[in-house]
What we know:
This protein has 400 residues and is mainly beta. The protein is 8% helix and 40% strand. The protein has helices spanning 2-24, 336-343; strands at 34-44, 47-51, 61-67, 70-77, 83-88, 91-92, 94-99, 102-109, 115-124, 128-138, 144-147, 214-222, 238-244, 247-257, 267-272, 278-284, 288-297, 307-315, 320-332, 383-385, 392-394, 397-399. β13 (238-244) and β14 form a beta hairpin. It starts with a helix and ends with a strand. Its main location: other.
Amino acid sequence: MKTKTLKVLGAIAVTVLTLVFLITGIKADTLSDGGYEVPVSLRKANSPSSVSLANQYFYGTAKVNVSNGTYAVTVTTNGLNYIKGMTANGQSVKESNQAGNKGDLTFNTDGKSNYVPVAFSLQIPIIGSMNQTAQFFLDYANAKKVSEPAAQPTAPQTPQTPTTDTSTTSTTPTVSEPTTTTTTLPTATTKKKTPAKKPTKKTTVKKTSKTKASTWSYVILQGDNSQKSIANKYYTKKAKVIKAGKKYRVQLTVSYKKSLGLGSHAVKPISVLGKKVYGVKLGQTKKNYTMNYSFYVSSLKQLKKLVKAKIHVKVPMLNISQTFNIRFKFSHSKTAKHVAAAAALPTSNNNGGSGKSYLSNAKLPQTSDSSQFELSALGLFMAMVTVAGGFKFLGGRVNA
């Protein structure tokens, strides 16, 4: 009976120790000096067992160099263009080997834990600025040693004095034979007279009358206040207004850098003044994606008022697919004062102030357990409420 009890207790003890080992993993301070390849993943800040959505932007293997109790960890990301700042264990990281969106991030750790807390300062296209916290999990239990520690330098050897060769060699100079040159005299040429051209009759071409386009400036405001929309950065802010029968056609142009990694369909116009848009045409230059589209007004007086519109924005890196309410504020070139006043409008932030994006304190969805952002099961909708700015992301249509 006692034997069975001891066996049961022993089995329980083994199980508990196994679970502890699996949860905590092997500690980094058990690794000897040298270079290692270590499996790594980005976990949520408040849920170490849950993988962060941002994990997809980091390669799964880290390089770790152990030397005299210091562990230099290098992780590789394919989203470097979006990271404006990063700290690990409260210390700044070192960037290297940047090539487009790819690059290495190196930081030091003391080797006392598998988890390394990190904080990101991100700049997300169209969405704006975000601050994010998470933690890297370094799986030292499956670390693979790839190099031994560097050997200590030895004392330099005394260089030997080179011996000089005293032997001489004689060379016999070569004499080149003189060359003869032949001079060719120019031959006389006779100029042929070309007959004079007869004057041609002038033909007059009637010019076809073209409808002259006028240029209007504009800024894009948020749907429910006078602050600039984030979308303002991705429009050219110059509209062509053309007379089209009894109406006026207003053509707008979207332009944003290819290096942002958003693809050619990041912005899709939904409606202007409650009606569908026309003539959507995608294009591109060497560095930018572009899109032209138009809407109609019955009178230019309509452009002197705020023009309500809706656009749909996709940010693949965050699985965001949102419809934004915006408003266009147009001004003609004749009223330069209005153009200058419109350009001076503040850009919103989450405190209702100016100069920063309204998402400056937002959180990357599904990376930490922040209440500011939450994705649904499909991972396509956000929810955010800011106190002073008055913005609410409620899964569908929002104010940009």
